[in-house]
């Protein structure tokens, strides 16, 4: 069934995004991947959702997988991801979708729901409690265990050092096997 997932490139806000989709239902489910993942994380769920009569879509956020990286990623904000989600829905002709966000993908899902409720039929958040941007979200990392990847990799160069100890092929294979 994986071979039925179709891939395309969609331009949103000046960036080319890699989009995977399956199903032709009138209702759409947009899957938002976590970190350090890509659309592929959702492949099994996409097939199940399509078999249930929905249109299932997953994409690689800007700078992930096959999607284009912004010219100045350090200037990007969570609102850029919200605009990306809404822009993708527009480009695909979808007026309203169910959002499913996991890990990092839950944050822009929450914010899209708050800022554009007219575009969201419902939201499912996996692994991250609902949290709008603000002091609680910014300081949320302080509640995490010492050494947890989110806090550990905030330090410039730390993720590169951690991953650099292993062959690139092995790191990529393990990430996409363990996280999906």
What does this structure look like?
33% of the residues lie in helices and 21% in strands. The protein is of the alpha/beta class and 180 residues long. The protein folds into 2 domains: 137 residues, Rossmann fold (3-Layer(aba) Sandwich), CATH 3.40.50.1820; 42 residues, no CATH class. A 6-stranded mixed beta sheet has the order 1-2-4-3-5-6, with helices on both faces. Helix 2 packs across helix 3. The protein starts with 5 loop residues before the first strand and ends with a helix.
From the structure above, extract its key features.
single chain, 180 residues, alpha/beta, Rossmann fold, 2 domains, six-stranded mixed beta sheet, 7 helices, 33% helix, globular, AB_hydrolase_1, AB hydrolase-1 domain-containing protein, hydrolase, AB_hydrolase_fold
What is this structure, in a nutshell?
By secondary structure, this protein is of the alpha/beta class.
What is the global morphology?
globular
Multimeric state of these chains?
single chain
Which CATH-level-2 architecture of the largest domain?
Answer: 3-Layer(aba) Sandwich
Overall structural class, as computed from helix and strand content, comes to: alpha/beta
Keywords: Hydrolase
Pfam families: Abhydrolase_1
Family: Belongs to the AB hydrolase superfamily. Epoxide hydrolase family.
Domain AB hydrolase-1: 28-133
Question: Layout of SSEs?
Answer:
Elements: E1 6-12, E2 15-22, E3 28-32, H1 43-51, E4 55-59, H2 78-91, E5 97-102, H3 106-115, E6 120-126, H4 135-138, H5 149-152, H6 158-164, H7 168-178
Parallel strand pairs: 3-4, 3-5, 5-6
Antiparallel strand pairs: 1-2, 2-4
């Amino acid at each position: 069934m994986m071979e039925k997932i179709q891939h395309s490139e969609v331009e949103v806000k000046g960036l080319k995004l890699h989009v995977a989709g399956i199903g032709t239902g009138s209702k759409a489910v947009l899957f938002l991947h976590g970190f350090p993942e890509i659309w592929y994380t959702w492949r099994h769920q996409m097939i199940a959702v399509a078999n249930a009569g929905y249109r299932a879509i997953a994409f690689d956020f800007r700078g992930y997988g096959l999607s284009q990286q912004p010219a100045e990623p350090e200037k990007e904000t969570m609102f850029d991801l919200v605009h990306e989600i809404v822009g993708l829905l527009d480009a695909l002709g979808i007026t309203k979708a169910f959002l499913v966000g996991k890990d990092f993908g839950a944050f822009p899902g929450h914010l899209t729901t708050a800022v554009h409720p007219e575009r969201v039929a419902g939201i499912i958040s996996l692994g991250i409690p609902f949290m709008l941007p603000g002091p609680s979200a910014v300081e949320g990392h302080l509640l995490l265990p010492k050494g947890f990847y989110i806090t550990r990799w905030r330090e410039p160069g730390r993720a590169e050092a951690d991953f650099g100890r292993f062959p690139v092929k092995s790191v990529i294979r393990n990430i996409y096997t363990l996280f999906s």
